[in-house]
Amino acid sequence: MSHTEAMLAYYGDRQVSAQWRDMLRAMADEFDTQLDVHELRALMSRIGERFAQGKPLGACATLDDLELALNRVWTALDWGWAELVDLSEHLAVRHFCAPLDHAFGAKAAVWASAFLEGAYQRWFFDLGAGERLALRQVEPSPVIDVGGVAQPYYEFRLAR
Q: Which of 14, 33, 87, 91 is disulfide-compatible with 158, CB 3.0–4.6 A?
C-alpha cells in the first residue's frame, strides 16, 4: 500500500473526537493570545517530553525495533504512524497523519508540531542519544499528494 493509499484509509477511519475539537481549538486560540511562537513551541515540546516519559518504549536494538515501538504508541492513540529513514548524515523521523491541525486548527501549525519534536527527542534521549544528538523539525513541512490534495506530514532530523 502506498503512502497515499494509507493516508486516505487512515483519514477515512479516524478523526479528532467531536467532544474535544472545540475545546482544543479554544485552548489553541487562547495560547496564541498569551504566548509568542517561540514560547508556544517550548511549551508544546515540554508537553511532548512529558508524554514520552509516560509512554516508555522499552529496549530497541535496531531501527526496525524502534519504529515498531513508536508505532505501537501512535497507532494505539490514533495519532498516525512514524517512519524512520537512515540517511547516513542524519536519521529522518517522518510522522504521518498526526491530528494536530485537526485538533488545534491550521493557525497552530507553526507551534503544535513541537509536541512531536519533544516526544521524539525524549525517546531518543532515553534510548541513549543523550545530549550528543538533537532532533529538529524540517521546515517547511514536506507534503504528499493524496488524491490531488497536498497533505503535509512532519519530518524531523536527528543529528549532531
A: 91
Q: What is the pLDDT along the chain (160 residues), one digit of tens a residue?
A: 677 767 665 664 556 677 788 899 999 999 999 999 999 999 999 999 999 999 999 999 999 999 999 999 999 998 999 999 999 899 999 999 898 888 898 889 899 999 999 999 999 999 998 778 899 999 888 888 877 877 789 999 999 8
Q: Which domain holds residue 31?
A: 3-159
- Rounded to the nearest 5°, which phi and psi values hold at 89? -80, -20
Sheet containing strand 91-96, edge to edge, reads 81-86, 91-96, 154-159, 134-137
124-158 exposure pattern, b = at least 16 Cβ within 10 A, e = fewer: bbeeebeeebebebeeeeeebebeeeebbbbbbbb
Amino acid identity of 1? M
Q: What total number of domains does the chain contain?
A: 1
For the purposes of burial, counting CB atoms within 10 Å of the CB of 62, is it exposed (0-12), middle (13-18) or buried (19 or more)? exposed
Specify the pTM. Answer: 0.88
Reduced to 3 states (helix: H, G, I; strand: E, B; else coil), residue 149 is strand
